[in-house]
Specification:
The structure is a single chain. The protein has about 350 residues and is an all-beta fold. It has no helices and 30 strands. The chain has strands at about 15, 20-25, 30-35, 40-45, 45-50, 55-70, 75-80, 85-90, 95-100, 110, 120, 125-130, 135-140, 145-150, 155-165, 175-190, 195-200, 205-210, 215-220, 230, 235-240, 245-250, 260-265, 270-275, 280-285, 290-295, 300-305, 315-320, 325-330, 335-339. It has a seven-stranded antiparallel sheet, with no helix packed on it. A six-stranded antiparallel sheet has the order 14-15-16-17-18-19, with no helix packed on it. A hairpin with an 8-residue loop joins strand 15 (about 155-165) and strand 16. The protein starts with 13 loop residues before the first strand and ends with a strand.
């Protein structure tokens, strides 16, 4: 194996690396998002770097310490830190403190709803706060592993040890508990609101069909799944955790039950991050050696966006229109591609 990606090993791969605008963030990056047409590179601690396609970078201080989580709806970026603060960043670089944990606990999960509602967690407690009004809280049996809002209505999925709790913070209805042994971390609803899936502490995923809570076991991974992304329309769920992108089929009413996943874009290193295009059946894939590919879901055709550069890819993001792709490695080496 050579130290750099060798196109000669796969002559069919087209390279567009020369079209990427390189960016030097100058600090470790934890994740990548978009606010409008500006890419947001969330630092591992203290600040967020905003960058334009022209290469202009401005850093915005956000936390006193580590940044533990981040979520964006394209209009604002909300981050949680080990300083116990929840901070919102707008596209102009303005910041607002949304909450400060009374016990100064770490805020390590955050989720955004389309109506402006935000959810976050500290320890075993999940919080939900609308655009107006006080935060509502709900305690689960163990530390919160992940949060996600349903596509319709204000229903929050709270992943934790032993399963997922579905909470309606604006209703008196009792929360629903979806049980499955083990520690559940990241959680996502399917875009059509028919399925719920979690990434587990062990190298596996689990899912439920929400109509009848039927279980879906998605196992066989060599490593833990740390990144998940729904394809346009929710027909497939792309995941990391192996040296290929594992794409589970969700087009039918049974989801992936009884079906084999597609395995795309194999490399001699693990997939680190996946990000599906918001409109077309393509995805961006970042690997543990720094390589970034664009991959067509239909047939697995690949385009090289970034050659391997040592540090693993930490984040990938598309803007809402799907015209810009931003990426960053863990060491802060980053870039933006205009489609």
């Amino acid at each position: 194996m050579t130290s750099e990606f060798d196109p000669g090993e796969s002559a069919s791969i087209v390279s567009i690396t020369d079209r990427v605008k390189p960016l030097a963030i100058g600090a470790a990056v934890g994740s990548v998002h978009f606010l409008g047409e500006r890419a947001c590179f969330v630092g591992a601690e203290e600040s967020v770097a905003l960058a334009t396609i022209d290469g202009e970078i401005s850093k915005v201080p956000t936390h006193f310490g580590g940044i533990l989580c981040a979520a964006s709806d394209g209009k604002r970026l909300v981050t949680g830190g080990d300083d116990g603060k929840l901070i919102a960043l707008d596209a102009k670089g303005g910041t607002t403190t949304l909450a400060t944990d009374a016990k100064r606990r770490w805020i390590d999960n955050v989720a955004l709803h389309g109506d402006g509602t935000v959810a976050w967690s500290a320890g075993k407690t999940a919080f939900v706060q609308g655009a107006k009004g006080e935060a509502k809280t709900f305690d689960v049996p163990s530390t919160v592993g992940g949060l996600a809002f349903a596509p319709k209505g204000v229903r929050l999925a709270i992943a934790h040890y032993g399963g997922v709790t579905l909470w309606f913070p604006n209703m008196a209805a009792n929360p629903e508990f979806l049980e499955w042994a083990g520690s559940h971390l990241a959680v996502m609803f399917s875009p059509d609101n028919k399925f719920l899936v979690t990434a587990m502490h062990e190298p596996a995923m689990h899912g439920w069909r929400l109509a009848d809570n039927r279980h879906m076991r998605m196992s066989g991974y060599p490593g833990r799944v740390r990144s998940m992304s729904w394809s346009a329309g929710g027909k497939g769920l792309a995941t990391s955790g192996a040296d290929t992108v594992i794409v589970w089929p969700f087009a039918s009413k049974d989801g992936p039950m009884g079906k084999e996943p597609a395995m795309l874009a194999p490399m001699p290193t693990r997939v680190a991050v996946v990000a599906c295009h918001p409109k077309n059946d393509i995805m961006a894939v970042g690997y543990g050696d720094g390589t970034v590919l664009m991959v067509r879901l239909e047939d697995g055709a690949e385009i090289l966006v970034r050659r391997n550069g040592g540090a693993a890819v930490a984040g990938l993001a598309w803007n809402a229109k799907g015209t810009l792709l931003a990426f960053a490695a863990e060491d802060g080496d980053a870039g933006i591609l205009e489609m």
